[in-house]
Design goal:
The complex is a heterodimer of chains A (576) and B (198). Chain A has 4 helices and 41 strands. Chain A is mainly beta and 576 residues long. In chain A, the strands form 7 sheets. In chain A, strands 3, 4, 6, 8, 9, 37, 38, 40 and 41 form a 9-stranded mixed β-sheet that branches. In chain A, strands 12, 13, 14, 15, 17, 19, 20 and 22 form an 8-stranded mixed β-sheet that branches. Helix content of chain B is 27%, strand content 24%. In chain B, the strands form 2 sheets. In chain B, strands 1-2-10-9-5-6-7-3-4 form a 9-stranded mixed β-sheet. A two-stranded antiparallel ribbon of chain B has the order 8-11. The longest helix of chain B has 13 residues. Chain B is globular, with a radius of gyration of 17 Å.
């Protein structure tokens, strides 16, 4: 009888474990040179049946986690091996607009893009993802993206878990829809939760303080994070850096595009299990993921429900465990309202009833859809600005701005929660209060303060947009430039800009000589005889020549956009 | 009634997807440049009973999984006068790895035992409304027309051929047995064929 009980017990345990899949942890790259190849691929995401067609960066799905150090100049070698164009945006990074990877930095198929920048961001978890206008939702759905973790001296000096995949765990939250052939369908809400691209994920963690770096990479859904036993956890970092001190919570609502880092103390719990869950049944229907659509394009199995994100099995401690949560992290010098030069007022609204706009389901910023040729704001370099966002939209939107990390001043008049009081690049703008036919309700108002230091560029804009990819693709986006002087945009001096290239023909490197030594290249493109752009080099460092070893023999053109007036000049050269 | 017949006739004549009297889609004859430098098409196989048409390409990793299976299909069915034609309809201007020279190199390297045809203007792809690589069609001769009897995936498991449902083989077995095709359409998947803007 005892034997039978044991056998039944073992079978139950096996069955319980077999309903979970081991959490996949992305590979890592570190240093200052990163090779990222974006490609069409496939992965066995559903355990039975056909593989799912995906896109990946270096691998089968998603991309490597990049570790970089504050102060380093990093160089990216991004190769697009998809059979369509894309872009790669470095979300949260403070860098020149021409390196930003927004809708203007389109990488055609089989083209190399080589941005580089100095890491000026504080230690935190950032990410990279496509940003091709009208294709962002589709390309993110296919799996293009990755984490970018910045380390700095302040964070490194703290007694925090940082052994990647052991006690420092990246969690990329998203949801997907699979059709009967296991292929993705491009939808705003999927029926299945994927954690690090793993269905029904589980992971073993040591019985000590562990760190989760959590990214909401969903197309639309917010996740109301908490643990199945209601335990506390400590938020230590928001989008752009450490908080002054850990903030203890039992729930955290994470919106699309946002990141947080949390600490959970699993000490003394070896042999037990706990689940990280999304308590989305607590969300209202004006919060992404809180709706209860039963039919139509937004219907899904996870809407307004609680569901598992990660099943955690607690095991042995590591040899040098972190067993306490620090009480102090850093001292953030937040931006001061007294330094503000201007308050910019933006509006979010529904497009219903607005003539000339898409149908009633689009959402818009400043009463207009995105126009890639229209610059909404010219921000003087060095400005400290308040951006005041008033939303009469029925729905809440996670608002993201490129280039800067900001501090939230207020949300509907109230100071932000402590976990939101640090550096952010995504802020949730709640839907309006009340309202209906003939009644506008009370709009939501969110204010944040940002400083636009360095990287003036009147030609390449930065973006601001709703980070619900569907809304972004439908036009809920605008753009601004940071300008250094009043002459940046309009002055088109046609004085001769002379440059020569050598050696010509060349076998692998090409050097550029400017007749005026004060001149420099704002952008260089290498183009083949059929007009295909083969290399995109923003603000290239050309003193050591341009490495052409990835190109085949033949005739090419080098197109130089000179820095002063942004005019284009072209020369022909040969690779032999 | 007269105008209805006239209208339907006009639609029938101008529709590249022709329909026979039983409502089945048929394909007109075509010929494309093979990797051996010659033009090959449906008319080159005088006694053909049917064709297996596979849209594939050089770079797609999912399509590459099927090389051996495509070779096996050709070996198995060519003796039954059912011939396999592989077609590359990728835009080689945008994606130069899909050019004819690379096609030829790949055919030699992978030992293709079937014609591998280039469709640079994507004309044949449009005839079939092909969307992905790989995607498969079975054409069968019905009343001197090439009727599409199957469209979709080659099978339902790219990585594990041993456990895959062989859609093409099942279709051809039924056709050879003069039976109705029980599964005429499945979901094709792979790398998307992007059509040039005209």
């Amino acid at each position: 009888m005892k034997k039978a009980v044991y056998i039944v017990f073992i079978l139950i345990q096996v069955n319980l474990y077999s309903q979970y899949n081991n959490l996949w942890i992305p590979d890592t790259l570190s240093g200052t040179q990163f090779n990222l190849t974006i490609k069409d691929t496939f992965a066995q995401l559903v355990s039975k049946g056909q593989q799912t067609i995906t896109s990946g960066i270096n691998g089968k799905f998603w991309g490597p986690t990049l570790f970089v150090n504050k102060g380093d100049e990093i160089h990216m070698n991004v190769v697009n091996k998809l059979n369509e164009s894309t872009t790669i945006h470095w979300h949260g990074m403070h860098l020149p607009a021409v390196m930003d990877g927004g809708p203007h930095q389109i990488i055609p198929p089989n083209t190399v893009w080589q941005p580089y920048w100095k890491i000026k961001n504080n230690a935190a978890t950032y990410w990279y993802h496509p940003h091709l206008h009208e294709k962002t939702q589709e390309q993110i759905t296919k799996g293009i993206g990755g984490l970018l973790i910045v380390r700095d001296e302040i964070e490194s000096a703290l007694a925090l878990p940082r052994t990647y995949s052991v006690d420092d765990i990246p969690l990329v939250l998203t949801d997907r829809d699979f059709n009967s052939s296991n292929q993705f369908t491009v939808v705003p809400y999927g029926d299945s939760m994927l954690t690090n691209m793993t269905l029904r994920a589980q992971y073993s963690l040591p019985a000590q303080v562990v760190r989760f770096r959590i990214l909401n990479a969903a197309i639309e859904r917010s996740f109301n994070l908490g643990f199945s036993d209601g335990r506390n956890f400590a938020v230590i970092s928001s989008d752009g850096g450490l908080l002054n001190a850990p903030v203890t919570v039992t729930k955290y609502l994470l919106h699309a595009g946002e990141r947080i880092e949390i600490l959970v103390n699993l000490s003394g719990q070896k042999g037990t299990s706990v689940d990280l869950q999304a308590f989305n049944s607590l969300l209202g229907n004006n919060i992404p993921g809180g709706e209860q659509f039963t039919q139509g394009p937004f219907s899904n199995f996870l809407g307004h429900k609680d569901f598992n994100i990660l099943h955690i099995n607690i095991g042995n401690q590591t040899t040098n465990p972190i067993t306490t949560i620090p009480t102090k992290l850093t001292t953030n010098e937040l931006l001061k309202v007294a330094d503000v030069n201007i308050t910019r007022k933006l509006t979010l609204s529904d497009s219903a009833g607005v003539s000339g706009i898409l149908g009633p389901n689009a959402f818009i910023i400043n009463h207009k859809l995105f126009d890639i040729n229209y610059i909404e704001y010219k921000v003087p370099i060095g400005n400290t600005e308040i951006w005041e966002i008033t939303s009469s939209s029925i729905f809440g939107h996670p608002f993201h701005i490129h280039d800067v990390e900001f501090n939230i001043i207020s949300i509907n008049g109230a100071a932000p929660d402590p976990a939101l009081a640090g550096w952010k690049d995504v802020v949730f703008i709640p839907g309006r209060n009340g309202g209906g036919p003939g009644n506008p309700g009370t709009p939501s108002v969110v204010k944040f303060i940002a400083k636009f230091e360095d990287y003036a560029d009147a030609l390449h804009p930065f973006m601001y947009h709703c980070h619900i990819s569907l809304h972004e693709d439908e036009g809920m986006m605008g753009q601004f430039v940071v300008v250094g002087s009043p002459t940046d945009v309009d002055d088109k001096n046609k004085d001769a800009f002379l440059f020569s290239v050598y050696p010509n023909p060349t076998s692998n490197k090409l050097f550029i000589h400017f007749s005026d030594p004060s001149q420099s290249a704002y952008y260089i493109k290498i183009i083949d005889v059929l007009g295909r752009v083969k290399m995109m080099l923003p603000s290239p460092q050309i003193q050591n020549g341009i490495d052409l070893s990835s190109l085949q023999k033949g005739v090419y053109k080098i197109q130089v956009t000179e820095n002063r007036f942004k005019n284009n000049y072209t020369q022909t050269f040969i690779i032999n | 009634m007269y105008f209805k017949i006239l209208f339907l006739s006009i639609v029938f004549c101008f529709n590249p997807w022709r329909y026979n009297l039983f409502g089945q889609k048929s394909i007109k004859d075509f010929a494309l440049l093979n990797v051996d430098g010659k033009y090959i098409g449906t008319k080159d196989f005088e006694n053909a009973r049917g064709f297996i048409i596979i849209f594939t390409c050089n770079h797609c990793p999912f399509a590459k999984l099927y090389t051996k299976r495509i070779n096996e299909l050709q070996k198995k069915y060519s003796k039954h006068q059912i011939h396999l034609l592989a077609i590359n309809s990728m835009d080689s201007l945008v994606f130069e790895d899909e050019g004819w020279t690379t096609m030829k190199a790949r055919a030699i390297q992978e030992k293709y035992n079937f014609p591998y045809l280039q469709d640079p203007e994507q004309v044949v792809a449009k005839l079939f409304n092909a969307e992905f690589t790989p995607s498969a069609y079975v054409l069968w001769k019905v009343n001197n027309e090439w009727v599409v009897k199957y469209r979709g995936a080659i099978d339902d498991n790219g990585e594990n051929p041993k456990i895959a449902t062989p859609y093409i083989s099942n279709t051809i077995s039924e056709l050879l047995g003069n039976k109705k095709v029980t599964n005429p359409e499945t979901f094709a998947m792979g790398c998307r064929i992007y059509y040039k803007k005209t």
